[in-house]
Design a protein that fits this description.
The protein is α+β, with helices and mostly antiparallel strands and 318 residues long. The chain is built from two helices and 18 strands. Strands 1, 2, 4, 5, 7, 14, 15, 16 and 18 form a nine-stranded antiparallel beta sheet that branches. One of its GO terms (cellular component) is endoplasmic reticulum membrane.
């Protein structure tokens, strides 16, 4: 019985934690809930020195109290970080804290975030395979041949499995959208990016590198590309003759969803009444209180019954 009560209370606590993870925007129509399977935070590794949800490859180094370093500031390095399970959510938001830094005046080449059909295949596109199928977000720190564009440059490319990334022109003809991000390397504040996707509505990339808490819009399109329904989340980086440290500090993925708009009420009917956040929170709190009272009542009855049986058994002995 005690085990049952403990399990029930644990389940109740987990439900409360999940409820607390749900967030709502200012308009009150988009909510998010954390995706543990695609999030990664310190110390990154489990007790057996493995990650339950991610694989590490290549030259990747893990400092459990600081970072996941995809490449160190050394030539000819290649590192990767890939989710073990695919991201199947239709609408999502991925927020990543990262750091690009090094000791050299000339540096390269950059790192990338991926949502692709395949995973863990090394190649020439920032450490990942060419002719990929899915979405790539490239943080390109070295300018090969792209006149009129300030580097570092951040761009998105949608791969169809056949189109090759042209490294010589820094992907100019393969670009879906992008922006210059001068100052994103060696920034004075934690550098982050936030990629949001809502099917058939928008794809948006925001950057934080100028001031903490200030998000700069890199690009937004109301015609989001088609992303494979089963896509793995990954991060890769590479260095050539030039090098840099490319660190991933944290990954926080969320599932986005909309709440149904209130229906129109007709005179005299109680339907279509708008439920406020306070009412929703109150209902949830009252449910928790009632549930706790129920389990305490059951526990009290069990303790009383056990005491009564013990007393009866003792009286029968005499």
């Amino acid at each position: 019985m005690i085990k049952l009560l403990t399990s029930a209370l644990s389940a109740l606590w987990l439900a409360t934690a999940a409820h607390g993870a749900v967030q709502q925007d200012a308009e009150g129509n988009v909510k998010s809930i954390g995706l543990r399977t695609h999030s990664l935070n310190q110390p990154y590794l489990d007790s057996d020195m493995q990650s339950r949800w991610y694989d590490f490859g290549g030259d990747t180094i893990i400092r459990t109290d600081q970072y996941i370093r995809l490449t160190s500031d050394r030539p000819s390095q290649m590192g990767s970080l890939w989710s073990k399970v695919p991201l199947t959510a239709t609408n999502w938001e991925i927020e990543v804290e990262f750091k690009i830094h090094g000791k050299n005046q000339l540096y390269g080449d950059g790192f990338a975030m991926w949502l692709t059909k395949e995973r863990g295949r090394e190649g020439p596109v920032f450490g990942n395979q060419d002719r990929f199928e899915g979405l790539g977000i490239f943080f390109d720190t070295y300018k090969n041949n792209r006149p009129g564009v300030v580097f570092p440059y951040v761009m998105a490319m949608v791969g169809d499995g056949r189109t090759s990334y042209d490294k010589d022109t820094d992907g100019k003809n393969q670009e879906l959208a992008g922006c210059s991000a001068r100052g994103i390397r060696h920034a004075n504040v934690p550098t982050k990016f936030k990629l949001s996707h809502f099917q058939d509505k928008y794809l948006k990339l925001e950057l934080q590198y100028k001031n903490e808490g200030e998000w700069v819009l890199c690009f937004e399109t109301n015609e989001p590309p088609t992303i494979p329904p089963v896509a793995y989340l990954g991060f890769t980086a590479e260095t050539g003759e030039l090098s840099d440290n490319h660190d991933i500090i944290s990954v926080n993925a969320r599932n986005l969803y909309t709440t149904a708009p209130p229906t129109k009420s007709t005179p005299g009917s109680g339907k279509g009444k708008k439920v406020t956040d306070q009412q929703t929170e109150g209902s949830w709190t009252w449910f928790l209180v009632k549930t706790l009272f129920f389990f305490f009542a059951v526990g009290g009855a069990y303790v009383g019954y056990t005491a009564y049986r013990t007393k009866q058994q003792r009286s029968h002995r005499f």
